[in-house]
Amino acid sequence: MEINDNGFIFSDDVNLVDVKAVHHYLSTQSYWAKGIPKETVQKSIANSLCFGIYKDGKQAGFARWVTDRATFAYLCDVYIENDFRGLGLSKKLMSLMLFHPDLQGLRTYCLATLDAHQLYAQFGFKAVANPEKLMEIRIKDIYHK
Fold first, then answer.
1. What is the structure's pLDDT at 145?
2. Is 56 helix (H, G, I), strand (E, B) or coil?
3. Which domain holds residue 12?
4. Helix or strand or coil: residue 134?
5. What is the tens place of the pLDDT at every residue in 7-44?
6. Would residue 143 count as lying in a domain?
7. pLDDT at 1
8. 3-state secondary structure at position 34
9. Contact indicator for 90, 55 with CB cutoff of 8 Å
10. Would strands 72-80 and 108-111 be described as parallel, antiparallel, or unpaired?
């Protein structure tokens, strides 16, 4: 899938992903993956359904789904570079990702966010109905050794 919209290319072609740019953003700009090793980013991209936004051959945004493509998908590592924020790119990206053929008919779509609840609510995401059912193992500061 590849769409050209006002000079921005939206694509699920993992070969277009600029791993160096994604790593730089995640390791230095994100609140959820500061310090993440490049090798970890490479492995996560290789094992996910990835979407990129490109402008003039540069990575303008990124997101990925961790999914079995049958029942479950977890959205993560969503970002738009600062220079391209406020242009509606995240909304366009969400629309494309949710209607991707590999993500139709799933039982559960989920994500975690600290500050983008309003964006995701526009696409049907809401607070977890039964949070008491959810459990996790969280390794605090795993990338800060």
1. 64
2. coil
3. 2-133
4. coil
5. 999 999 999 999 999 999 999 999 999 999 999 999 99
6. no
7. 75
8. coil
9. no
10. parallel
Let me know if 135 is exposed, middle or buried by CB neighbors in 10 A (0-12, 13-18, 19+). Answer: exposed
Q: What is the number of structural domains in the chain?
A: 1
Taking alpha carbons only, the member of 101, 91, 12 closest to residue 52 is 12
Q: Is 5 left (phi over 0), alpha (psi -120 to 50) or beta?
A: beta
User: What's the half-sphere exposure (Cβ side, CA atoms, 13 Å) at 72?
Assistant: 4
Section 40-54 average pLDDT = 98
Please give the Cα distance from 22 to 38 (Å, whole number).
Answer: 9
Beta bridge partners of 8: 5, 55
Distances (CA, A) of 83 to 33, 59, 79, 87: 20, 11, 12, 10
Read off the pLDDT of residues 67-102 as tens digits, 9 standing for 90 and up: 999 999 999 999 999 999 999 999 999 999 999 999
Q: Output the CA angle 50-30-32, nearest 5 degrees.
A: 85
Q: Quote the CA–CA distance of 115 and 96 in Å, as a whole number.
A: 21
CATH classification of the domain holding 33: 3.40.630.30
Q: Is residue 15 part of a domain?
A: yes
